[in-house]
Automatic annotation (TrEMBL):
<comment type="function">
    <text>Plays a role in regulating ADIPOQ and FABP4 levels in differentiating adipocytes and is also involved in regulation of adipocyte triglyceride storage. Weakly binds 25-hydroxycholesterol. Interacts with OSBPL9 to function as lipid transfer proteins.</text>
</comment>
<keyword id="KW-0967">Endosome</keyword>
<keyword id="KW-0446">Lipid-binding</keyword>
<keyword id="KW-0445">Lipid transport</keyword>
<dbReference type="InterPro" id="IPR000648">
    <property type="entry name" value="Oxysterol-bd"/>
</dbReference>
<protein>
    <recommendedName>
        <fullName>Oxysterol-binding protein</fullName>
    </recommendedName>
</protein>
<feature type="domain" description="PH">
    <location>
        <begin position="4"/>
        <end position="101"/>
    </location>
</feature>
<dbReference type="GO" id="GO:0006869">
    <property type="term" value="P:lipid transport"/>
</dbReference>
<feature type="region of interest" description="Disordered">
    <location>
        <begin position="638"/>
        <end position="658"/>
    </location>
</feature>
<comment type="subunit">
    <text>Heterodimer with OSBPL9.</text>
</comment>
<dbReference type="Pfam" id="PF01237">
    <property type="entry name" value="Oxysterol_BP"/>
</dbReference>
<dbReference type="GO" id="GO:0005829">
    <property type="term" value="C:cytosol"/>
</dbReference>
<comment type="similarity">
    <text>Belongs to the OSBP family.</text>
</comment>
<keyword id="KW-0597">Phosphoprotein</keyword>
<dbReference type="InterPro" id="IPR018494">
    <property type="entry name" value="Oxysterol-bd_CS"/>
</dbReference>
<dbReference type="InterPro" id="IPR037239">
    <property type="entry name" value="OSBP_sf"/>
</dbReference>
<dbReference type="Pfam" id="PF00169">
    <property type="entry name" value="PH"/>
</dbReference>
């Protein structure tokens, strides 16, 4: 109680992405257990702009930086705050935690734990029964008061022994049973009345209880690691303990089904849109279409994804969705709320990974296999920053089967890095003869053209194929990606299953590569993106390979968005280049000769892609297909965007059902299935082989 002092001062408060951070004057009222804030110190005598009850709250320093922290009230309301420095943050956090503990314990004394483990909700009584009525003075903390053990103060906590760990395991098993009972009891409540199963406090409890149990299991595993280390010696200095996969299955906690379209039910539209009226599959030609780059115009659309809309207004939708998901559930068939969508298709997102065509073209200009591999690694690591539109985790549209996206880039030849002896004019006469007609028509142009096409080749599983080529430089890349989304508690993980192949025809080299996993963190507050996992790049012909690690933020210690990697010659096992830094900030390349190169991704020039106007696009091209959804999102009309989105998805389901009934297979337009992968129907390497065969026959 010596530290129970009232403090006040200015902090920055995060409101939403529209207004962002704002200075507000905060007052900690220890006697009342309240955190209040005002517009400024002069308005302190007026009514507070906002008030949080600290009893039952959780005060959490953020891992984003050393200044930010959050106050999570038992009611579900949250303040995200930022101090001027780490010292001030620690001062506020410690005082808030002391006040919170004091008032939480006071509530525990005044409201003894209920005897029944099911919190009296399992009695199946009517909504008017005393056990189900909520008194006005009773908040979520006192209503769902869970008995807890308190350590006596002033005593040193002994090191846990193996039998103590068994006791902890037993207590956790009891807690899991209580949590299951709680979930069942909430779900048994009526959907209308004084206290319903859709009550916001109950939704918050359901959404966070599973994540809490998962976190407890992680902590228990850390205790086991620490105990093991005490048997063998202390942990090495600098050790970081990462978040772990759950050690105990929580898959049976929810019985509400695995793939129900809950947001769709909540936001059910009043009318059926025109898009949904298509009862038969579109009788569109599936013949490949040659896109003339001259018809494409520089893209002036600049949809910055910096607005999540009314997150607070949509909180009940998010909580209701989270309460229905199971840990590890595949989200492929789960319809997510419209307001979290980016204003672009996933196919266009893949195109945005090519926003540095100068680095892409420069790969083939390397004079040695070592230099070409290093250039490819440099291009690969710089592609993710622009592919993500801002730091906020938003989801691109799920492509409709048969959806396509076309674009191109024009890159002035003077801006592409070259090396002595590797310029294009030095090619032999026989090589010049093999150039395609497209190249002959552009012989006098002062720019290179990179063409891109993507197609959604499968719906279940969702697989996208994309292909890019630069005919002038005789290089192309082909890839197929299966996006597997899983629910991880308070995060969503997306695994990119598939492989890419870069072909440098001039050097007869092929580079295979994979893609990292992506994670959307903090999905209940301000979601953010991080990449994770190990990827490999290999060139069988030259014997060079690269291993790249995208590091997720550890549970203890570590930095955000960190990436490390190395390029080596497999034959001699010699490392020729090392790379470290952040994939969305600055990368440091250290070469075998001792030289160091820094690449600041935030300052790299971005070449705008060229896209045909919507009126010239086909019905299944991304921007035309999703134009009504995109326009509604730009206007901030979430309901209208949801209607258009649902109509497209319903049309896809109807067409898929009809194909199943008539046993009609789906025919792709640009990609052909080869083994487990998908290959562009007319890749540059096949065109080159055909020309060589023709020349051989002529000779």
């Amino acid at each position: 109680s010596d530290h129970m002092e009232n403090i006040c001062g200015y902090l920055m408060k995060y409101t939403n992405l529209v207004t962002g951070w704002q200075y507000r004057f905060f007052v900690l009222n220890n006697d009342a257990g309240l955190l209040e804030y005002f517009v400024n110190e002069q308005s302190r005598q007026l009514k507070p702009r906002g008030t949080l009850q600290l009893a039952g709250a959780v005060i959490s320093p953020s891992d984003e930086d050393s200044h930010t922290f959050t106050v999570n009230a038992a009611s579900g309301e949250q303040y995200k705050l930022r101090a001027t420095d780490a010292k001030e943050r620690q001062h506020w956090v410690s005082r808030l935690q002391i006040c919170t503990q004091h008032h939480t314990e006071a509530i525990g004394k005044n409201n003894p734990p209920l005897k029944s483990r099911s919190f009296s909700l399992a009695s199946q009584g009517s909504a008017n029964s005393p056990g189900l009525q909520r008194r006005p003075s009773q908040n979520a903390v006192s209503f769902f008061n869970v008995g807890h053990h308190r350590l006596s103060t002033g005593k040193r906590v002994p090191i846990l022994q193996p039998d103590h760990l068994v006791d902890v395991r037993e207590m956790m098993s009891q807690a899991e049973g209580q949590q299951r009972d709680l979930i069942r009891s909430i779900e048994c409540l009526p959907v209308s009345g004084h206290l319903t199963s859709l009550d916001q406090d109950l939704l918050m409890l359901k959404a966070t209880s599973m994540a809490t149990m998962n976190c407890l299991n992680d902590c228990f595993h850390i205790l086991q690691l620490q105990h093991a280390s005490q048997q063998k010696g202390s942990l090495p200095a600098g050790t970081t303990i990462s978040w772990l996969e759950p050690k105990i299955s929580l898959s049976n906690h929810f019985k509400n089904g695995a793939a129900q379209n809950f947001p769709a039910e909540i936001n059910k539209p009043a009318s059926v849109r025109e898009e949904q009226s298509v009862a038969e599959p579109c009788q569109l030609t599936r013949e490949p279409e040659e896109i003339n780059p001259d018809e494409e115009l520089e893209d002036l659309c600049d949809d910055k994804e910096d607005d999540l809309g009314g997150v607070e207004e949509q909180r009940s939708v998010i909580l209701h969705l989270l309460s229905q998901l199971k840990l590890g559930m595949d989200l492929t068939r789960v319809v997510l709320p419209t307001f979290i969508l980016e204003k672009r298709s996933l196919l266009e997102m893949y195109a945005d990974f090519m926003s540095h065509p100068d680095l892409f073209i420069a790969i083939t200009n390397g004079t040695t296999p070592e230099e070409r591999m290093i250039r490819f690694v440099e291009y690969y690591l710089t592609s993710f920053h622009e592919g993500r539109k801002g730091a906020i985790a938003k989801k691109p549209y799920n492509p409709i089967i048969g959806e396509t996206f076309h674009c191109s880039w024009r890159m002035p030849k003077s801006e592409v890095a070259t090396d002595a002896g590797s310029n294009f004019s030095a090619h032999s006469a026989s090589e010049q003869v093999t150039l395609s007609k497209d190249l002959e028509g552009q012989a006098e142009l002062d720019y290179y053209t990179v063409k891109f096409v993507a197609e959604q080749v499968s719906h279940h599983p969702p697989v996208s194929g994309f292909y890019a080529e630069c005919v002038e430089r005789k290089m192309c890349v082909n890839a197929h990606v299966w996006t597997k989304s899983k629910f991880l508690g308070m995060s969503i993980g997306v695994t990119m299953v598939g492989e890419g192949l870069l072909s440098l025809l001039e050097h007869e080299e092929e580079y295979t590569f994979s893609l990292p996993c992506a994670y959307a963190r903090s999905i209940l507050t301000v979601p953010w993106v991080e990449l994770g996992g190990k990827v490999n790049i290999n060139c069988a012909k030259t014997g060079y390979s690269a291993s790249i690690n995208f590091h997720t933020k550890p549970f203890y210690g570590g930095k955000l968005h960190r990436v490390t990697g190395e390029v080596k010659q497999n034959t001699t096992n010699t490392v020729v280049c090392r790379v470290q830094g952040e994939w969305n900030s600055v990368l440091e390349f250290t070469y075998s000769n001792g030289e160091t190169k820094y690449v600041d991704l935030t300052k790299l020039s971005v070449t705008r892609k060229r896209v045909r106007p919507i009126e010239k696009q086909g019905p299944f091209e991304s921007r035309r297909l999703w134009q009504h959804v995109t326009e509604s999102l730009r206007d901030g009309d979430i309901d209208k965007a949801t209607e258009h989105k649902r109509a497209l998805e319903e049309r896809q389901r109807n067409e898929e059902r009809l194909r199943a009934e008539t046993e009609t297979p789906w025919c792709t337009k640009y990609f052909i299935k080869e083994g487990d992968g998908w290959v562009y129907h007319k890749p540059l390497w096949k065109a080159g082989s055909a020309v060589q065969t023709q020349q051989t026959d002529t000779n």
